[in-house]
Amino acid sequence: MDNPQVSEEISIKDWQTIQQEVKELRRSVSQLQMENCDLENSLLTAVEHGDLVESELLDVNKRLKSEIIERKMAQATLQSILEIVYRDKSDLEIMLMTTTEHGDAIEYEQYNRAVETMRQSEEQFRAIAEATSVAMLVSSLSDGVITYANTSTGTMLERESHELIKRSIKDLYYLPAEWEILQQQFSQNQRVRDYEIRLCKANQEPVWVLASLHPLWLKGEQVLLSTFYDITLLKKTEIALRESETKLREQANLLEHRVEERTHDLKLAKEAAEAASRSKAAFLANMSHELRTPLNAILGFAQLMLYDQELNEQHQADLQTICNSGNHLLTMINDILEMSKLEAGSVLLREKECYLYNIVDTARDMLSLKAQEKSLSFDVSIQPDVPPYIYTDEGKLRQILINLISNAIKFTDTGHIHVRVDVRGISEDVKAIVGEYSEIPRILCFEVEDTGAGISEAEILTLFQPFVQTHSGRRSQEGTGLGLSISYNYVKIMGGQMSVTSKVGEGSTFRFYIPVKSLDLFNLNSPSKLSNRVIGIEGNQTYRILIAEDIRLNRQLLTRILSPLGFDVREVSNGEEAIAVWQSWSPHLIWMDVKMPILGGQEAASAIREIESMRNISASQKVRIIALTASLIDLREEDLFLHGFDGFLAKPFTEDKIFARMAEQLNLTYIYSSK
Fold first, then answer.
1. Chain centroid to CA 138
2. Would the CA dihedral through 416, 417, 422, 426 be positive or negative?
3. How many Cβ atoms from other residues are within 10 Å of residue 145's Cβ?
């Protein structure tokens, strides 16, 4: 009887023990489940760390991909382990429920199997932690003492992993202040994820990591799981980029400062250049006016004296020389003015039908005396098939010929000067020079050959640049160095090309080609340049002509030209007098100088037009006003017309131009001398 009772007591005690063990086992399973979940999150975080670095560091792409694959394999293994644990937990719960319901005792073999399963799970977790490249530390939440460090942690910190056990995790951080901030983040959120911070290597060098902190239960104690992913390379790259960006910004600021300085300097230089250009324009305009005004009187009175029949041939020749020399001086003035216009791009073609033989003869007559003085043979030959009438800019063509012939004479001491003119079809080699002209079957060719000093090959390269003179030109100390440059640019504007062949000591040949637009359209029956002088006006009407000019000699010249033809002429010296005489005398035409004291010609013309408008004077009854100007740089035809002028004439002028302008404005018909 006693034995059964003893067995019953033992069975109750065993049952209570088993019940207690089952509770412990259930609690262990629960903790293991929590640990598995935390470890799974840590591993997933490590995977995310790898993905982040993979996207930012291309140079470690392969290594990161390998680690990502490794983490995914570890995740798959963890999932399998969790399934086993969950299955074992389910079996234990079923067993406990069965025990509770039926009171049957759990066999020790089943209990041992569950414990062994959990031990295997823990070993598998440890194997995963050792295999991953993510550094893992387990430390106590209470005092921060490290209880576990995987191999990757030791590798990252260049220490043995077992040396980290029982050390404070705080000692692994590079700066205590950074660690304290990290702890504050953890205290507030109970976990930290992807926090950038520095750990300290064994040699005290910092290593940048992405830190994640997770609390978990392990063996009945709450611990802190810390995972670190090395981002040192990324941070170094980031720091280097930031430093580079800072340097670039500093360099950009420096360059911007320099650009501002240069811009300021350029602005000052531009302002100085514009001021110099304005001064140059003003100087040239004033010089033009000052030089052309006396030349106007010299050439005008010399021309009037040429008509005096009482002068003998010698005096006539001397006067012609004065005219030629004055025209040459005028040419030099025009050279400077024209170069200014060429630089400003304001030179325009003024094409018209003109007499080619007269152009060539004028150049020859002007320069033949110089050739005779040096005993040079001076020949001009024009081929029979060259048309006498051409359509071109007469003034520019004449100037080109004068410049080339004048240079040939100047640099030739013995020998000859040959000027040749012919007309040719556009050959293939010439097309490359003058271009395609579908309506131009032929071109005019001019050659000026001399037996002078010649030009070296080096000097030919810069020969057509402004203010450039050859060695011979510098020795002669004559000219401005502009003639060839102006001629070269004139030919280009006219659609042609100029070239030169030369040999030092033997001479030079200048050639230029000018395309002719349509030779067949010229009226070969047009009258040649009138050689007869105007001696009267057809009709009985007397025309009143007012001369407004501040220079007495210029007024006298105009009066000498107009009075013999029966014009009623009056003179005034400024714009105010011109307005007063116009109102009281009603002239048919006013020759108005642009620059005059008290009131200038433009202001006077504008005032007259305003008064006419107020009085409603019809267009046919309005006075004709022609501007006289010696300034051709700072004055435009459009401005003159806007101020009320009907035309203009540049100084120096000739009587035939005076008569031509008056005929245009007053519809005059002249009577010419029979000679």
1. 65
2. positive
3. 14
Bridge partners of residue 207, in order along the sequence: 199
Residue 35 · residue 49 · CB < 8 Å: no
Q: Which residues of 285-321 are buried (b: 16+ CB within 10 A; e: fewer)?
A: bebbbebbbbbbbbbbbbbeeeeeeeeeeeeeeebbe
The per-residue pLDDT for 588 is: 95
In sign, the C-alpha dihedral spanning 390, 395, 396, 397 is positive
Is residue 442 within 8 A of residue 519, CB to CB? The reply is yes
Indicate the pTM of the whole model.
0.42
| DSSP per residue, 348-397 | ----EEEEHHHHHHHHHHHHHHHHHHTT-EEEEEE-TTS-SEEEE-HHHH
pLDDT single digits (tens) 407-443: 899 889 999 999 999 987 655 554 554 444 444 457 8
Angstrom distance (rounded) from CA 221 to CA 377: 127
Q: Token match 């800072």: residue?
A: 246
End-to-end CA distance of the chain: 183
Beta strand pairing call for 442-450 and 416-425: antiparallel
Distance CA 637, CA 547 (A): 20
pLDDT digits (tens, 9 = 90+) for 340-389: 666 666 667 778 788 888 888 888 888 888 888 889 999 999 888 888 88
Beta-carbon contacts of residue 492 (< 8 Å; ≥ 6 apart): 498
Per-residue pLDDT of 171-224, as tens digits, reads 889 898 888 898 888 888 888 888 889 999 888 899 998 888 888 776 667 888
Instruction: Specify the 3-state DSSP secondary structure of 242.
Output: helix
64 vs 660, more confident: 660
CB contact at 8 A, 25 and 114: yes
Whole-angstrom distance, CA of residue 484 vs CA of residue 342: 13
- Of the candidates 650, 647, 646, 668, the one whose C-alpha atom is nearest the C-alpha of residue 659 is 668
